[in-house]
């Protein structure tokens, strides 16, 4: 291992390791629907679409430093955009995805205006109000949204040439969209927009002095976040085939925020871990206690945050760093030959303080 690192260099070794890890993860992800049962494939599909929504929320909260409790409303907007297009206009499934993304991006731009003057708890309260009043509004627009009964649409069906089952095809399509969304989020964070968001999160005054336009980037943060949520909502309509106002209450927004915090803020892998937490932990809580699953869910969140204060992504990073330090310490010691101990003559005992020098005349009694 030490020879490989010396030959390739640290940077190339890291790139090679990242590439091999990505290929292994892609192989496992593509092969998953052919190994698990249909219900388990459905759960994995939900994890992927929740990861898209959390990736957008991570841009706003984790990297932008702004609090939002209305992310579920953008999720609902994307879901209803796809459902209305499929039910009222008989559109193709793939045609609903760009429309939902563009519509939620514009909605996020308009909603980002209050973010210019509000921050902290005041901004969180405004975003929460958006998530609270949207479900009653959807019930009022019965000619378009179907009211309280919602809309039932056809699920995305596999083509005949694929030879895949419905759940397998749905999983692979959602996996492809999720991969593109996460790659887009990664590139955004490495661009000027991402650096501006990080500067705004750390110190707005210093960022403004350096030339960062606060109004532009705060609004864009909401727009990008809403776009990712709209894409996730569109995928939700494809997978479930049914939307109703009660499916998008304000509890969804709080659950998404809790999932992001548990997964890890400002982490590229946090949305995936948080999405798995959002999907699987409520079902585990339901199995533990049918009477009070919410209590079990809350206790599990507290336990996770106690063990990993920076989220599950931070816990994995700390474990990886500890293993790297351990390998770094043991690798040089393993290749080093022990040196023989030096053989030196024993040092002579120091003369006492009152000893007479050699050749000195004998002392008399007066001395």
Q: What features would you describe in this structure?
A:
It is a single chain. With 367 residues, this protein is mainly α. The chain has a domain of 222 residues. It is 69% helix and 1% strand. The protein has 15 helices and two strands. Strands 1-2 form a two-stranded antiparallel ribbon. Helix 3 packs across helix 12. It starts with a helix and ends in a 33-residue tail after the last helix. GO terms for molecular function: branched-chain amino acid transmembrane transporter activity.
Describe the structure in brief.
This is Urea ABC transporter, permease UrtC. This protein is mainly alpha-helical and 367 residues long.
Uncertain runs: 351-360
**What is the CA–CA distance across the termini?**
75 Å
DSSP, total strands: 2
Classify the secondary structure makeup into a structural class. Answer: mainly alpha
Q: Helical element count? A: 15
Element-by-element helix/strand order: HHHHHHHEHHHHEHHHH
Please tell me what the overall shape is.
globular
Query: Measured on Cα atoms, how large is the radius of gyration?
Result: 30 Å
Q: What is the average of the pLDDT values?
A: 83
Our estimate of the beta-strand percent is under 5%
Fraction of residues in helices? 55-70%
């Amino acid at each position: 291992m030490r020879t490989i690192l010396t030959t390739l260099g640290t940077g190339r070794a890291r790139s090679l390791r990242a590439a091999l890890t990505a290929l292994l993860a892609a192989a496992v992800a593509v092969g998953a629907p052919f190994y698990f049962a249909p219900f388990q494939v459905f759960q994995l599909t939900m994890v992927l679409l929740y990861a898209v929504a959390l990736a957008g929320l991570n841009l706003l909260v984790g990297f932008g430093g702004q609090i939002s409790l209305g992310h579920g409303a953008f999720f609902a907007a994307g879901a209803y955009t796809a459902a209305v297009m499929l039910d009222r206009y008989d559109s193709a499934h793939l045609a609903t995805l760009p429309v939902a993304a563009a519509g939620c991006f514009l909605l996020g731009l308009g909603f980002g205006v209050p973010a210019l003057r509000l921050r902290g708890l005041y901004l969180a309260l405004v975003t929460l109000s958006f998530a609270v009043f949207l479900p009653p509004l959807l019930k009022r627009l019965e000619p378009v949204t179907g009211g309280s009964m919602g809309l039932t649409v056809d699920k995305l069906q596999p083509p005949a040439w694929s030879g895949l089952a419905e759940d397998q095809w749905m999983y692979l399509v959602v996996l492809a969209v999720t991969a593109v969304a996460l790659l887009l989020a990664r590139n955004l964070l490495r661009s000027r927009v991402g650096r501006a968001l990080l500067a705004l999160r750390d110190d707005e005054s210093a960022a403004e002095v350096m030339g960062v336009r606060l109004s532009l980037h705060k609004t864009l943060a909401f727009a990008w976040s809403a776009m990712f949520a709209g894409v996730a909502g569109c995928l939700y309509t494809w997978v479930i085939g049914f939307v109703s106002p009660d499916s998008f209450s304000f509890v969804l927004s709080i659950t998404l925020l809790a999932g992001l915090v548990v997964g890890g803020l400002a982490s590229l892998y946090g949305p995936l871990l948080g999405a798995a937490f959002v999907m699987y932990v409520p079902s585990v809580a339901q199995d533990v206690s049918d009477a009070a699953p919410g209590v079990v869910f809350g206790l599990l969140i507290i336990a996770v945050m106690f063990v990993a204060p920076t989220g599950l992504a931070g816990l994995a990073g700390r474990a990886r760093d500890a293993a790297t330090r351990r390998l770094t310490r043991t690798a040089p010691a393993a290749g080093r030959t022990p040196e023989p101990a030096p053989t030196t003559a024993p040092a002579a005992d120091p003369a006492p303080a009152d000893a007479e020098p050699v050749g000195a005349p004998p002392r008399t009694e007066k001395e």
